[in-house]
Amino acid sequence: MRLLWAVDHELQSTSKRMELSLGVTGPQRLVVRMVGRFPGITAGRLAGMLHLHPSTLTGILKRLERNGMVKRGSDPRDGRRALLFLTEAGRARDVPSPDTLEAAVQRVLSRMPQARLEGAQEMLTTLAEELGVVQVSERHPLEAARQS
Predict the structure, then answer these.
(1) Residue 47 neighbours by CB distance under 10 Å
(2) Mean pLDDT score of the chain
(3) Which CATH number characterizes residue 36's domain?
(4) Residue 85, beta-bridge partner list
(5) pLDDT band (50, 70, 90) for residue 148
(6) Domain assignment of residue 81, yes or no
(7) Could you read off the pLDDT of 18-40 as tens digits, one per residue?
(8) pTM for this prediction
(9) 75 - beta bridge partners?
(10) Residue span of the structural domain in which 76 resides
(11) Is residue 77's pLDDT more than 90?
């Protein structure tokens, strides 16, 4: 438990440093990166992909819109739905940077043997299931097959 708390603390600290250096927190950057990968995504779909409660995502999106990084557009098939897009400022932050959470994760992943990565993924997925974050049906197909 102490290790999990320490990792959580450092994730929060790194997120705050990212805000100072990049102008976005860790969660905001994740949203920017995902909207950059899926231009025109709906907020509901994005919340599902990120395992965020819609109200949590709403707060993140409002801050990103206020800071001019994300804009909403109307869905041409259903004017009641909003689609999310990056602005020029958002695209400027949708680039690799060594001072981000995802860069730290990539550095660690690149040093780990495949067998250890699979074990870590299994442990984290099982913990997420226990906490109600991930359903068995959401597992990667190979991971779900191994559990059957």
Answers:
(1) 19
(2) 89
(3) 1.10.10.10
(4) 71
(5) very low
(6) yes
(7) 999 999 999 999 999 999 999 99
(8) 0.81
(9) 78
(10) 14-95
(11) no
Q: Is 69 exposed, middle or buried (0-12, 13-18, 19+ CB in 10 A)?
A: buried
Total residues belonging to the chain: 148
Torsion of CA 97, 68, 40, 45, to 10 degrees: 80
Give me the number of domains the chain comprises.
1
Amino acid at 52: L
Task: Extract the tokens encoding 89.
Answer: 């400022």
Q: Does residue 105 belong to any structural domain of this protein?
A: no
d(CA 34, CA 70): 11
User: What does 55-91 look like in DSSP terms, one character per residue?
Assistant: HHHHHHHHHHHHTTSEEEEEETTEEEEEEEEE-HHHH
Residue 64 lies in a domain: yes
Percent of the chain at pLDDT exceeding 90: 74
